[in-house]
Amino acid sequence: MATVDVNIDSATRDLEIDQADYGGDTTLSVNVGLLGSLTRLNIANPTGTSDELELKLVNDSIMNYQPSPYVLELQSGANVALSSMSGPDSVDMQGMIVQVSENSTLRFTPEMASTAPSNLDIRVYTNSKFIYDTTGVTIDHSDPAFLLHLQPGAEFQVMGASTYEYADGKLSFKDAQGQTV
Length: 181
What we know:
Elements: E1 3-7, E2 14-18, E3 27-31, E4 40-44, E5 53-58, E6 71-75, E7 79-86, E8 97-100, E9 105-108, H1 110-115, E10 120-124, E11 129-132, E12 146-150, E13 155-158, E14 163-167, E15 170-174
Parallel strand pairs: 1-3, 2-4, 3-5, 4-6, 5-7, 6-8, 7-9, 8-10, 9-11, 10-12, 11-13
Antiparallel strand pairs: 14-15
């Protein structure tokens, strides 16, 4: 598996990525930049490649003063597996807005599901999909990890879940043995 590092300079605010440029077993690791320069990352798939793009968001600056919330937007049929958000100031990625636009898919890998910063705002639009994969990891379900907004026609899939339950204002997903996934 190849990893491609994209380091953002302090002048870059928006970055457009074509998923087809990183095919096969490639992991794209994007360093959000010194002083929180990157505020919008758009990933599109205009050629319709079927390969899933693995994405890691890295913040290796100890002085990240983000000017506004980060926005990760998947467009034009993008198919992305978000595998991590890491760094000494990954707490600065809290409040990040993730938009899954029409015909796009976002999958949280087990690594991401178990380490996601709190207060992520995930917006899944019509004809798009969000997959939450906790396979092989234990998740602390005592505190919600993210806000999930589903528009009519959007799909939310929890890997390993066979049933769901809504009680006391909380939606829970359970496996065949009745364990929360």
